Automatic annotation (TrEMBL):
GO terms for molecular function: nitrilase activity. Residues 300-342 are annotated as: Disordered. Belongs to the carbon-nitrogen hydrolase superfamily. Nitrilase family. InterPro entries: C-N_Hydrolase, C-N_Hydrolase_sf, Nitrilase, Nitrilase/CN_hydratase_CS, Nitrilases_CHs. It holds the Pfam family CN_hydrolase. It comes from Hansschlegelia zhihuaiae. Residues 325-342 have a biased composition (Basic and acidic residues). It comes from the Bacteria. Residues 7-273 form the CN hydrolase domain. This is Nit6803 family nitriliase.
Amino acid sequence: MTDRRKVRAAAVQISPDLEDGAGTLTRVLNALEEAADKGAELVAFPETFVPWYPYFSFVHPPVATGAEHLRLYEHAVVVPGPVTDAVSGAARRRGLVVVLGINERDHGSLYNAQLIFDADGTLKLKRRKITPTYHERMIWGQGDGSGLKVVDTKVGRVGALACWEHYNPLARYALMAEHEEIHVAQFPGSMVGPIFADQMEATIRHHALESGCFVVNATGWLTDEQRAKISPDEKLRKALTGGCFTAIVSPEGQHLAEPLTSGEGVLVADLDMALVLKRKRMMDSVGHYARPELLSLVLDDRPQPPVRGRAQDIRTQDVPAIGSRSDEADDHAAADDADRAVDQRVAVLRGPARRP
């Protein structure tokens, strides 16, 4: 049946409080109220917005970032904790699906994490960026495949990736294969310059077309005063300008509202969910347009803890990962068959053995 749902989505472009994580949380809660007053049912925030994105690591060498890195630890978010409780309460009170980017602290490590709250306040997903980019590798640890999944929410099936994870086609395909209807993209914003915004637009519009889903993209904004505080060097401050492109894109690759490229604001657009099927009727990358016998994805979606008990290994070693495209036994059998086929072809090409 045709999906007749209409979903109002909001993408938030605001500045963090670079002094206090609690201040940033207050801005998040205020933005949720503003978006809800505009009729929004889904609200997306920028990458690691709480307490703030580590812009300092982009313009300063690692040896000079120790104090700021430690300060980020002090204000980072523990999940679950007071921050998730506050956002959960706001989501439940206003009936909002919320996608929030945070710096997650897990004991002695920080992670770039994305949280998806359902409209009843339930935290449906906590995922970590699988590979931090460039300077970010000095700040965050790596995520694993357990977060590469789509969750059912009040507004539909929602998936999320952070920044240059969108340049990993296999990560995107993992979400596409779970039939995401709304994809939330999060970028830091206020970096690199206009070229970053141009690349962002190409990236999110392409994913909308390829996945046949809506894309809601949110980027952060830095004021002139904040840039000056991050770096007194005018040349370095130029690296903290531009790069904002908060936008909402349809499955046909069209903008549903004028993108925000500067300043603060809440971008709102209505998503006609019938467009998902309209697009996929023509091209379903994980259905009738796929060729799994030629090209397929193997995803290890198990959590990767630093310690595994021997008993746990014994219990799970023969169990395929949930959502994996093949299991280990099948892989070995296929490899053996392929090796035998190669041996036979080699024998044919060489011809009969010659007698001395």
